[in-house]
Design the sequence.
C-alpha cells in the first residue's frame, strides 16, 4: 500500500512540476512576452485589437513568447499552455494561440476546435511562411509577430463579418515571390522557345511575295492545328501558370505574360523567316510549307481566458 502511495505521489509531483514549467497569463492576457522581445507599441496594438475582436465575436487571439520550452516539445507546450490559459469562449472554443520559443527558434500556431474550419493547418502554415518566419529569421521580432497577428486577425474578422482596415506587410513576401519568379524565368522562357518553334508549324508564313495565291493543302491545316492544340498552346499555358502562381501581384503577372508573348512572337517571325529560306520547312509549289513532292520536315528546340480548449489543429515552423 505504501509503495502504491509513494508511486502516486511521485507521479503527482512530476505533473505538478510540469504545470509549474508553464508560464502564467499576465494581466494583459492577450500578450505574454516572457522572452522580452516585443516592444510596448506592438503589445498595445495586439491588446487593443484582441479586445475589440473578443467583444464582437468572443474569439480570442493570444500571443505568448517564452525563453525556452523547459524540455517539452513545441506541440506539447502549446497545447498545455492553450488549456491552462483557457483561450477562447468555453462553448465555441474559438481561441487562437501564437507561441514563439526563443532559444529553440520555433513558432507554433495552436487553433481551437471552433476555428478548425476557418483556420486549417495548411492555412496557418502558409501564413507563417509568408508573414512571420521571414522576419523571425532576421530576428525582427516586432515585425514578425505583428505581421502574423494582423494576418490572423483579418482572417477572423472576415470570418465573423467584421470590417478591418489592417494591412499585412507583404514586402518580404513580394521579394521572395519575385526571386522565385526570376528563378523560374529560364524554364518559362525555354517553354516559350519551344512554343515559338512549334508555332511555325501551325501558322507557316513565307516572307517571299507570291504573285498568285496557292491552294492550301487541307491535310496540312488539320495537322498544323493538331500540333498547335496538342503541343504549342499547352506548353505556353504551362509556362505562364508556373510563373503565375509565384507572381506577387498583378503587375508582375502582366510583365510575365507580356514578356512570354514577345518571346513567342519573336521566335515565330524568326522561324518563319528561316522557313521562307527553306531552312526549317522546305517551300515548294504550295505556300502551306510542303515541298512539291509532299514531304514534310521540321526542326524544334528547347483579459482572461474564456475557458476554451485546443485541439482544432495548428502548425509549427522553425526559424
Sequence:
Amino acid at each position: 500500500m505504501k509503495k502504491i502511495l509513494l508511486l502516486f505521489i511521485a507521479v503527482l509531483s512530476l505533473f505538478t512540476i510540469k504545470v509549474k514549467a508553464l508560464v502564467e497569463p499576465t494581466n494583459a492576457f492577450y500578450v505574454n512576452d516572457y522572452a522580452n522581445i516585443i516592444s510596448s507599441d506592438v503589445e498595445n496594438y495586439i491588446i487593443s485589437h484582441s479586445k475589440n475582436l473578443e467583444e464582437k465575436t468572443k474569439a480570442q487571439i493570444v500571443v505568448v513568447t517564452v525563453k525556452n520550452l523547459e524540455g517539452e516539445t513545441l506541440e506539447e507546450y502549446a497545447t498545455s499552455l492553450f488549456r491552462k490559459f483557457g483561450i477562447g469562449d468555453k462553448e465555441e472554443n474559438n481561441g487562437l494561440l501564437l507561441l514563439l520559443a526563443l532559444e529553440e527558434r520555433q513558432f507554433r500556431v495552436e487553433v481551437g476546435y471552433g476555428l478548425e474550419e476557418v483556420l486549417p493547418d495548411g492555412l496557418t502554415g502558409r501564413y507563417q511562411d509568408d508573414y512571420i518566419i521571414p522576419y523571425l529569421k532576421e530576428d525582427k521580432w516586432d515585425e514578425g509577430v505583428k505581421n502574423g497577428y494582423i494576418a490572423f486577425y483579418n482572417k477572423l474578422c472576415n470570418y465573423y463579418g467584421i470590417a478591418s482596415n489592417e494591412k499585412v506587410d507583404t514586402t518580404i513576401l513580394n521579394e521572395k515571390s519575385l526571386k522565385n519568379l526570376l528563378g523560374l524565368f529560364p524554364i518559362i522562357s525555354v517553354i516559350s522557345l519551344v512554343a515559338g518553334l512549334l508555332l511555325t508549324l501551325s501558322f507557316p508564313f513565307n516572307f517571299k511575295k507570291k504573285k498568285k495565291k496557292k491552294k492550301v493543302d487541307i491535310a496540312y491545316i488539320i495537322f498544323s492545328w493538331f500540333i498547335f492544340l496538342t503541343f504549342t498552346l499547352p506548353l505556353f499555358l504551362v509556362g505562364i501558370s508556373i510563373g503565375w502562381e509565384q507572381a506577387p501581384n498583378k503587375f508582375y503577372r502582366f510583365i510575365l505574360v507580356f514578356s512570354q508573348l514577345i518571346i513567342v512572337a519573336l521566335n515565330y517571325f524568326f522561324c518563319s523567316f528561316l522557313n521562307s529560306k527553306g531552312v526549317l520547312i522546305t517551300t515548294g509549289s504550295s505556300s502551306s510549307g510542303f515541298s512539291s513532292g509532299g514531304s514534310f520536315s521540321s526542326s524544334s528546340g528547347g483579459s482572461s481566458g474564456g475557458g476554451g480548449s485546443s485541439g482544432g489543429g495548428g502548425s509549427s515552423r522553425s526559424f
About this structure: Residues 1 and 7 are 10 Å apart (CA to CA). The first helix runs from residue 2 to 21. Strands lie at 31-33, 60-66, 95-101, 106-112, 310-318.
